[in-house]
Amino acid sequence: MEEDINQKYRVVDVPLDGKIVEVDELIPYKNGNGFFRNVILEINGVFGTPAYVPVALFGMDATELDPELDMNRPLKCAGRLTSRRYLDRNGRMRWALSMSASGVILGARESLQPKSQNEQLADAIKAADPLESDPDDIPF
After folding, report:
1. pLDDT of residue 109
2. Cβ burial, residue 20 (10 Å; 0-12/13-18/19+)
3. What's the structural domain count of the chain?
4. Is residue 11 situated within a structural domain?
């Protein structure tokens, strides 16, 4: 019996907690029974620097995202890292890594979150300042 070259291997599940910084377009499954979508998640990396992780979302998790409304939306999930081996067009065996989301929990959209007191105060000051309220009205 011949071994199937195209195989996936589960490497590890990693807890991911960050915000969405890029949302790709919906991609239909090859069999036509659903969609997936790739997003870029900004998480805390080494020494507090941001790290960017590409994650694939499937099914309802993918279709419920809006590329414009869901920027900076919090997302928590288990990132399932898998390796995959396959034959390229020249017949050579290749390996690829991918991260897919499992157990997705989406936070509130940024536009729906209540503003903090500092943001409300800044908006009130901006509205009260006559120079800020009409940018076309130059006082000189």
Report:
1. 85
2. buried
3. 1
4. yes
Find tokens 């928590």 and name the residue.
Answer: 76
Predicted confidence at residue 112, as pLDDT, reads 59
Question: Residue 61's CB: how many other CB atoms inside 10 A?
Answer: 22
DSSP element (H, E) containing 125? helix 117-128
Four-CA torsion 39, 106, 69, 132, nearest 10 degrees: -120
Q: Does 85 map to a domain?
A: yes
CATH number at residue 41: 2.40.50.140
pLDDT at 76: 95
Question: Which structural domain range is residue 78 located in?
Answer: 7-107
Q: How far is CA 58 from CA 11, 45, 62, in A?
A: 19, 25, 5
Task: Provide the total of helices (H) and of strands (E) in the chain, helices listed first.
Answer: 3, 6
73 neighbors 20 (Cβ within 8 angstroms): yes
Going 6 to 91 to 35 to 83, the CA torsion angle's sign is positive
4: tokens are 């199937």
Q: How far apart are CA 103 and CA 13, in angstroms?
A: 11
Q: Is residue 2 part of a domain?
A: no
What are the tens digits of pLDDT across the range 22-56? 999 999 998 889 999 999 999 998 898 999 999 99
